[in-house]
């Protein structure tokens, strides 16, 4: 829990929620707590290792990106040099044309006669013709050198382009490796309660079993709670140990959690790259702030506030046709119930949320449908926080398709009425 873990959580065990698949002794619960702590320690170690690997891969990707940028800059520089050389060649070609034209004119009889009649120095005339030939030859040689350099530059550009392509290929491989490590680090579904919160919850429960109820290590905790409550009832002169708290209601059936809505995601769906395992519930798309009801009579057994993956979450225990179930309501904008509270199918659990622009802390609300505004409903067999204590046990070991007990239309279709 991120907020209130009330003594009512233990008292719930005396409300008929003691009906369970397997009895739990205090020592068994302690063992489960120790296993959770060991798992948390192992997870932290794996997380640190994975994060270290991700940082190394990220550093490599950054280095390759720098190399790609440098290679592209080198290609740009060489291309600019090629353009400059081509401009020089064009300029020299024009000069050669001018020189050849002058030489041709100079070699003509009319030009010669005109020059002779006006010449002051015939030696100067011969000198000019020789210089023109030399300049023309010089420029031709320079043009050949430039062309050779341009050809070398083009070959270098080709090599650099191949290098850039190889670097991008390696970068893509590293990006794939980075994403794979990220998937391992964030193996999430529609919701995931942090194991630290679960450990804190279970530690408080164990403490209450030991301090308030004085349960023996090998004593079934349900029997222990009933024993203490019965003794307290007798001391108060009451004939029932559960008079003050009632018992788990026996519901006739299940009702839809909202009065209207559209089915946006089915149980078992794979929602793009958002979730890394099949969808464990049904998403009902509704406007933000829509009233959310309990799907059957029952007792609230767990509440989570502002979970980073699931947002505000409520879990309710039910007894329907002699069988026990737990329902979960995720991505709530507000919560109207508390742990230990008895509810009916008309009790308002809270209001729908799921819009990441509003519930900014909820990072696992799919925003592809109606801007993320929806209710995620999840149903499991057995009693969460009584038959089993971890969210992974609730989600992976006991959840089933809500359509098995609720009348929902097909995906994409809407409904009206509960």
Question: What can you tell me about this protein's structure?
Answer:
The protein is α+β, with helices and mostly antiparallel strands. Helix content is 48%, strand content 16%. The chain has seven helices and twelve strands. Strands 1, 2, 3, 4, 5, 6, 7, 8, 9, 10, 11 and 12 form a twelve-stranded mixed sheet that branches. The longest helix has 82 residues, at 26-107. The chain is elongated, with a radius of gyration of 40 Å. It starts with 7 loop residues before the first helix and ends with a strand.
Care to give the gist of this entry?
This protein is an alpha+beta fold and 418 residues long. It has helices at residues 8-11, 26-107, 109-118, 122-185, 195-211, 221-235, 391-398; strands spanning 250-251, 260-265, 282-285, 291-293, 298-307, 311-320, 323-335, 342-343, 348-352, 374-381, 399-400, 414-416.
Order of helices and strands: HHHHHHEEEEEEEEEEHEE
Report the count of strand segments.
Answer: 12
Tally of alpha and pi helices: 7
Mean pLDDT: 76
> How would a crystallographer describe the biggest sheet?
12 strands, mixed
Beta fraction of the residues? 15-25%
Distance between the termini: 30 Å
- CATH topology title of the largest domain: Glucose Permease (Domain IIA)
CATH hierarchy, class of the largest domain: Mainly Beta
Helix content range: 40-55%
Topology:
Blueprint: H1 8-11, H2 26-107, H3 109-118, H4 122-185, H5 195-211, H6 221-235, E1 250-251, E2 260-265, E3 282-285, E4 291-293, E5 298-307, E6 311-320, E7 323-335, E8 342-343, E9 348-352, E10 374-381, H7 391-398, E11 399-400, E12 414-416
Parallel strand pairs: 1-6
Antiparallel strand pairs: 2-3, 2-12, 3-10, 4-9, 5-6, 5-8, 6-7, 7-9, 7-10, 10-11
Helix pairs in contact: 2-4, 2-5
């Amino acid at each position: 829990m991120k907020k209130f873990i009330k003594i009512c959580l233990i008292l719930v065990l005396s409300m008929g929620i003691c009906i369970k698949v397997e009895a739990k002794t205090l020592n068994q619960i302690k063992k489960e707590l120790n296993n959770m702590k060991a798992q948390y320690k192992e997870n932290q170690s794996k997380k640190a290792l994975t994060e270290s690997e991700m940082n190394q891969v990220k550093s490599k990707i950054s280095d390759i990106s720098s190399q790609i940028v440098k290679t592209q800059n080198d290609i740009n520089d060489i291309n600019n040099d090629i353009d400059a050389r081509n401009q020089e060649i064009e300029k020299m070609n024009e000069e050669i044309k001018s020189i050849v034209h002058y030489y041709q004119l100079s070699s003509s009889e009319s030009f010669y006669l005109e020059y002779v009649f006006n010449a002051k120095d015939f030696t100067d005339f011969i000198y000019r013709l020789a210089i023109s030939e030399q300049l023309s030859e010089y420029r031709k040689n320079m043009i050949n050198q430039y062309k050779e350099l341009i050809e070398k530059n083009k070959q270098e550009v080709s090599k650099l382009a191949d290098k850039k392509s190889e670097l991008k290929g390696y970068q893509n491989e590293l990006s794939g490796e980075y994403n794979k490590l990220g998937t391992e680090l964030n193996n999430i579904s529609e919701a995931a309660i942090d194991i630290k919160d679960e450990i804190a919850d279970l530690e408080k429960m164990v403490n209450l079993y030991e301090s308030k109820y004085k349960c023996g290590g090998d004593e079934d905790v349900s029997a222990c709670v009933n024993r203490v409550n019965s003794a307290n009832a007798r001391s108060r002169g009451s004939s029932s140990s559960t008079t003050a708290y009632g018992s788990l209601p026996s519901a006739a059936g299940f009702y839809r959690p909202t009065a209207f809505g559209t089915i946006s995601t089915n149980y078992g769906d794979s929602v793009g790259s958002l979730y890394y395992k099949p969808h464990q519930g049904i998403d009902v798309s509704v406007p933000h702030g829509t009233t959310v009801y309990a799907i059957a009579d029952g007792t609230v057994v767990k509440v989570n506030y502002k979970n980073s993956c699931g947002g505000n979450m409520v879990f309710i225990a039910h007894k329907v046709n002699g069988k026990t179930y737990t329902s979960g309501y995720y991505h709530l904008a507000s919560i109207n119930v508390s742990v230990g509270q008895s509810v009916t199918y008309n009790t308002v659990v809270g209001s729908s949320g799921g819009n990441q622009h509003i519930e900014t802390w909820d990072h696992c609300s799919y925003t592809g449908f109606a801007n993320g505004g929806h209710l995620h409903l999840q149903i499991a067999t057995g009693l969460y926080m009584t038959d089993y204590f971890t969210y992974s046990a609730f989600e992976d070991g006991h959840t089933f398709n809500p359509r098995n007990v609720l009348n929902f239309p097909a995906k994409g279709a809407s409904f009206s009425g509960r």
